[in-house]
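Hey, can you fold this one?
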Amino acid sequence: MYWINLAGNGVIVPSIRRGDDDDSMCGNAVMYDIGKILTVGGAPDYNLANGHNRAYIIDINQATPSAGNMVYPRYMLSSSVLPSGEVVVVGGQEYVEIFTDYNAVMKAEVWSPVTGTWTLIEIEISIPRTYHSVAILMKDG
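Sure. Predicted structure:
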């Protein structure tokens, strides 16, 4: 959210910074089971801010427990539910600098709803997946 003043040359000033929590900007969310949503990553501001590695579970009928921290902080990341029920997260940036691939996270992570833990996939992707990227699980892999 911004304050916009059109007087003179005009000025745009951020009105607040978002919290360092599950409501941070440009994180990601995926429903991995009936009524259960995993939220991951984000940052307290839209630009020039550190991404975070926190993850939370939103259970529509329960409290919101932590899902454990990812290995990497991520902003503008993507997530997909795997056939096993696990969730894979890919891409994002550790430090937000919009419209760039600066500080791109090149390794994926997998979260297990059974253990509540994250596993780092050591193979790096070849192309940064940052601003407005998407991850889709396809039937043929």
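The mean pLDDT is 84. Let me know if you want another pass with a different chain boundary.
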